[in-house]
Design brief:
It is found in: Mitochondrion. By secondary structure, this protein is α+β, with helices and mostly antiparallel strands. Helices cover about 20% and strands about 15% of the residues. The protein is built from four helices and five strands; from the N terminus they run H-E-E-H-E-H-H-E-E. Bound molecules: FE2/S2 (inorganic) cluster.
């Protein structure tokens, strides 16, 4: 029986990985999953529904019943609203920029430095601008209304040339 030493074992493992990935490449297409898996929101329990209203770019309003802890980005994406969320909610872009109704703005937690840095890059910044991925639904902001700005900007390295 062939016994492999540590180095040989590594070589075989590496060769197998190289063979497998070149012979059976796995391609993952963008947005391949069903819409219901986007946004990662859960159905609110009866009696615990919170409400959020999005004012879309054309002025129409959409109100949803959501659960505590859902972010505005997840809610928007789960309902196929026009909120890109290019960084996936990691506070590294400004494509989830929303303008919060001043009536609810003070009920939100203060934005941290990372969020403020990203907001500085957003088009059409206002006094009540926030990033949708950083706003989690809670009882304190039940009924919140946010408007989607006319434009968003995803900064790329070419913007700094
Ligand atoms: S999704 Fe990129 S900062 Fe919110």
């Amino acid at each position: 029986m062939l016994r492999l030493t540590g180095f040989s074992r590594q070589l075989v493992r590496h060769s197998w990985t190289a063979y497998r990935t070149t012979t059976f490449p796995t391609y993952r297409l963008f947005s391949q999953t069903a819409l219901r898996f986007h946004g990662h929101i859960k159905k609110p329990k009866p009696g615990e529904e919170l409400h959020v209203t999005f004012i879309l770019k054309d002025g129409t309003q959409k109100t949803f019943e959501v659960s505590e802890g859902d972010t505005l980005l997840d809610i928007a994406q789960a309902h196929n609203l026009d909120m890109e969320g290019a960084c996936g909610g990691s506070c590294a872009c400004s494509t989830c920029h929303v303008i919060v109704d001043p009536e609810y703005y003070d009920a939100l937690e203060e934005p941290d430095d990372d969020e403020n840095d990203m907001l500085d890059l957003a088009y059409g910044l206002t006094e009540t601008s926030r990033l949708g991925c950083q706003i989690k639904m809670s009882k304190a902001i039940d009924g919140i209304r946010v408007a989607l700005p006319a434009m968003t900007r995803n900064v790329s390295s070419s913007d700094f040339e």
